[in-house]
Amino acid sequence: LDLSNCSLQSVPPGLAEAAAAIVLDLTENPLTALPNASFLGFVHLQSLAVPLPLECPGGSDAWQDVTVDGSSRLCQGQRNPCNTSMELAWPCPENSVCAPDGPGLIQCLCKNPFHGYKCLREGTFPMLLFGGILGTATVSLSLLLWGTQRRKAKMP
Fold it and tell me: What's the number of CA atoms in the CB half-sphere (13 Å) around residue 145?
């Protein structure tokens, strides 16, 4: 994806739609900052060219090779932060596994059959119970409102 010399002053909000990009060029733009969250989901990104004043997203530890070429900085070979000794800095909760989520970013995915907050619930989500309670509450509230508000409806 070539976004070089597009007069970008910030990372475009629609960039998230290009998360499958392998090569991205942002050189020759008056960018002031590269928020790490801008590259959330960019797990396939292997080559990123940014203007020289900016650092590579995730820092130089998130890339295998960072080189300076003229007026640009080239970040190549995105590292998997889950496979390094730095994993202790991002502890995933018990019953979950670390997965890369972009340069220097991780996500914690619950192992089967765990789910919920911090992967503490075991089994499957109780869909029948949830749907039954939600349906009963909806029907009850609808009948109550129909019964109390029908006198205000105008007759033809």
Answer: 6
Residue 146 domain-assigned (yes or no): no
Q: Which domain holds residue 44?
A: 15-78
Beta-ladder partners of 97:
109
> Which three-class secondary structure state does DSSP give residue 64?
strand
Give domain status of residue 95, yes or no. Answer: no
Report how far residue 145's alpha carbon sits from residue 58's, in angstroms, rounded to the nearest whole number. 54
Question: For residue 96, what are its two tokens?
Answer: 């979950």
Establish if 132 belongs to a structural domain.
no
DSSP 155: P
- Tell me the pLDDT tens digit for each residue of 6-18: 988 888 888 889 9
| Residue 121 resides in a domain | no
Domain count for the chain? 1
For residues 52-75, one letter each, b for 16 or more C-beta atoms within 10 angstroms of the residue's C-beta and e for the rest, the string is eebebbbeeebbeebeeeeebbbb
Tens digits of per-residue pLDDT, 88-122? 555 788 899 989 999 989 899 999 889 888 889 88
